[in-house]
Each structure stands twice: as C-alpha cells, then as structure tokens.
Amino acid sequence: MVRRSTKKKSNINLRFNILTVLVYIIGIILIAKLFSLQIVHGAEYREQSNTRLTRESTLEASRGAILDRTGTELVTSNMTFSLEMYKSKVDTDTLNTAILNMIQVLEKHECSYSDTFPIRIDSFEFTIADENLVNWKKTNNLDENISAEKAFYKFKDKYSIQNANIQEVRKIIGIRYLISQKGYSSTRAVTISEDIPREAVAEFSEGSEKFAGINVVVKPVRQYTSENLASHILGYAGTISSEEYESRKNYYNQNDIIGKTGIEYVFEEYLKGKNGTKQIDMAVDGTTTAEYIAEEAIAGSDVVLTIDANLQKTAENALAANIQKIATGGFGKAYDAKAGACVVMNVNSGEVLAMASYPDYNPADFIGGISTEAWNNYTNNEAKPLVNKATQNSYSPGSTFKMITAIAGLESGVINLNTKINDTGIYTRYRDYQPKCWYYTDYHTGHGWVDVSGAIEKSCNYFFYETGDKMGIDKLVEIARYFGLGNKTGIELQGETAGVLASRETKQKMHADDPNWNPGNTLNAVIRTRR
Questions:
Q1: How far apart are the C-alpha atoms of 387 and 200, rounded to whole Å?
Q2: How far is the C-alpha of 361 from the C-alpha of 359, rounded, in Å?
Q3: Taking CA 478 as the corner, what is the angle to CA 472 and CA 481, rounded to the nearest 5 degrees?
Q4: Do residues 289 and 212 touch, judged by C-beta distance below 8 A?
Q5: Angle at 453 between CA 448 and CA 459, to 5 degrees
Q6: CATH number of the domain at 398-528, out of 3.40.220.10, 2.60.40.10, 3.40.710.10, 3.90.950.10?
Q7: Hey, which residues does 279 pair with through a beta bridge?
Q8: What pLDDT score does 69 carry?
Q9: pLDDT under 70 in the chain at which residues?
C-alpha cells in the first residue's frame, strides 16, 4: 500500500484563504476610494476639472549662428516675443472684451497685428478692400449686392459685439474674423502679433485676468547682421513648405524654419536645433495658472566659414563700383554691364576668402515670408539678383584663359621662356579666318616681338594664336582639365554649374550641324574658351 500525505493539500488551502482575504481587503479599499472621490469630494474635484486645462506648447530651438573665419557673426538668431491666442471657455462678451484689451495694449506699444477682415471704416465710410469681393461674400453667406456697411453690421451681430464705439467694434471683428479663419482651438493657437516689446509682455503677464486665451511665447528670429553682405553665400531660411514637410515630418513641425538656399540650406542638419516642450495650465476663462518646461529646447550648432567679412565687403564694394564704371564708360567705351562676380582664394589651401556676386539681395526680406512686392522686384530684375553668378552661371573667361594656354605651350614644348613671336596685328595663317589682336583693333598696329612673359603682360592675342596653332586643341584641353576647368569645384553651395570647356567633344554635342573641329576653333579657344 502507498500512504498519501495531506500536508501539500493543507498548504494550498492556506494560500487560497490568504489570497481571498487580500482580494477582499483591496476591494474594500477601492470602494472606499471611489466613494471618497465621487461622493465625499466629488463636487470639489468636478469644480477643479471644469476650471483647468492643460496644454502643450512648443519651445522653438534657436538656429545655429553662421560666422566668418575670425568669429564675426554674419547670421544669428534673436529671441523675440510673440502673442498667441487659444480658444477658452468664456462667454462672448468676455471674449470680445479680452480682444479689445489686447488690441489696446498692442496699439499702445505700436505693435502691428494680424487683421485680414476686408471692410475698412474711414470717417464712417464703409469700404470693402478685397480683390475677390464676390467670392468673399459667397464664402461668408452674404448677399452679392450687400453694401459694405450692411456686411459690417452682419459681422457685428454674428460676433454679438455690444460695444457702441464703431472703431472698436471694427478692431474686435478683425481679430474674431482672423481666429475663425485660422481655426484656433484650446490646443491650437493663432499668432496675433510678433516681435512685441518687453513692456507689452509685462502688461499681458501682470494683467492676465483681462486677456482670456492670450499667451506670450518666445520665438527665435533669424537676423542677418550685415544686411546684404555675402547674401549669395549665406542664403536665407524660411517657413517649411508642404513638400519639404512631407519628406521631413519625422524631424520637423509644420511651422518650422528651414534653410532654403546657400549655407542655410547646405548645413541645415547642423544649424537646426531640437525643439522642446512646455506644459501650460489654464483656467477655463483662458488665464494661465501655471507653466513648466517638460523638455528643454536644444540650439543648433554654429557653422564657421572660410570667408573673411572685411575682405568680403571690400570685394563686393569693388565689384559693384567697377560694374557701374564699365556701364557708364569709365574705362573708355560704355558697355551694357549689369552683373558680375569675383572670388578671392588662398592659393595655398584653396580656401575661399571672399565671393562676391552682383547684384545682391537682402536675406532679411525672407524672414517671416517675403512680400509679393519684394519677390517681384527680385524675380523681374533681368540681372537676376537671387542667382550666385560665381557658382551658378558659366561665362567665357576671356583673356584670363591665356594663362592656361601659356602653360600648355610650355608643357608641350612648342614654346619656351625665350621664344619670341612677332605680333603683326592680324593672324593671316588661314585664308578663311584671320583674327586680329585687340591692340591692332584699337591702334592699327601689332605688339611686335614678344616672349611669353610679355604676351601675358600685354595680353597679346597674336602670340597665343600662334602658340595654340602649333600645339593643337587636344594638349590645351589636357592641361585645362588639370586645372579643373569643365568640372565642378565641389564648393559647399547648391546649384554649382560645371561650365563648358572648348574641345572636340563639346563641339560635337553643341553643334551637330558642324561637328568637325577646325583651326579657327582652336584660335578662338586659346584666348577665351568657355570654362
């Protein structure tokens, strides 16, 4: 026989009884807690719940600064105050009064504020300043023949404005119309005014009970410290577009600032900071009761350029002055000069110390969105001030290319440092193409006997015609490519063009009707090939 033990069964029964007691006790505690919450303190907690709202606000991160090689700030961000409005659980009279109180403070401190309502009052004459008047009336359910005055009073009744002062009524309608168009809510604010002074901030903070739903936020605003200086290098930043947002929604908000051109664009991932968050507790009447930072904002990194600000300014001034001098005949004959570029480099390191493009523009025009007038002025200007002429266009370099021809001639052995060529003015080797030296065109004679140093000094076309003809185009192209011509430099700016280098291949691509290379093409290439 096998004797069975009852000890295990007893232990199980004991544990079961203890568990039952614990569950019973916990149940009693929960019931007591619910009784306290709902019965004993129910009214108190309901009152607190009905008088408090918690809202999350974004703390915008400051973009990194852009500095020159000496540490001078060319672009920075200033912290400014903006006024926002949230929807609050207040009656219409309280809302209208709060709006009027807000406007009075803004006007006292000469702050501009948003107002898109098209009806204006001038000496009690009502006018509608709207280009799409018919559509506006239709959208707002107004009769198409309604007068401006009657439309005005329709909105006064719609917003239940009891004020007798017609000018104050107009101001209240302006804000009510704005917030209705923008679709504000208890969690989504509408920006009313930007860059308000500290004195106005103090008034809003000290009398918060008078400003239902009003909230002052700190926002970084881009500042270009030297106006137009280095505008094509620095570029500009603006509000992210819907297309940009779609591809970056994991890292950006819909109202974020993003680099559009220049360094602002190229180094966006470094310049952009990380936004933080702030929790705001508000009473239902829209007044702030408490606020605290949930996550600190992290500023973007600074970017240091090889540019020297003082040299950049000198280069830009010199370029502008010389283009104007060329256009007015200051160097002799007047030319239709409207644009140009110049670059100053450290020949030992390849660093760009200055890069000027004329005409330029003011990046500050794009802060907060460029006006239609300013945009049209830029885009309709035939000199294209928004284009960086130093990197985004290609030009025939003219006589500066003669340096390449001289080096190619020396490398190929067709000339040496002592070789002299007699410039008679007209290069007559070929019957069908006989180009002239510029000196002959101006003075009807040649430079005479010159060596390579003299040819460079005098920019003698004839010397380089002869050198190029003996050397041939293929050697010239080989040496030119050694210097990087015909290729992009890889400079850290968007939209760089590679330029065009005169060669057999280039002619075949660009002139399919006459693809064969001939001696006349070489004569042209040696003194002004396209880069």
A1: 41
A2: 7
A3: 135
A4: no
A5: 65
A6: 3.40.710.10
A7: 56, 292
A8: 96
A9: 1-24, 27, 32-53, 55, 124, 130-131, 187, 282-290, 529-531
pLDDT value of residue 102:
92
Specify the DSSP element, H or E, that contains 402.
Answer: helix 402-412
The amino acid sitting at 49 is: S
Distances (CA, A) of 425 to 70, 195, 340, 422: 50, 67, 30, 9
pLDDT for res 100: 94
Contact at 8 Å (CB) between 364 and 234? no
pLDDT of amino acid 242: 84
pTM for the predicted model, two decimal places: 0.73
Provide the token pair at 513: 């009707």
Instruction: Pick the closest to residue 214 from 198, 194, 190 (CA basis).
Output: 190
pLDDT value for 85: 87
Where are the chain's structural domains?
A: 91-185, 398-528
Prior bond of 359 cis (ω within 30°):
yes
Q: Quick check: 492 and 420 in contact, CB under 8 A?
A: no
Q: What's the confidence (pLDDT) of residue 218?
A: 85
Residue 386 carries which side chain, given as an amino acid letter?
A: L
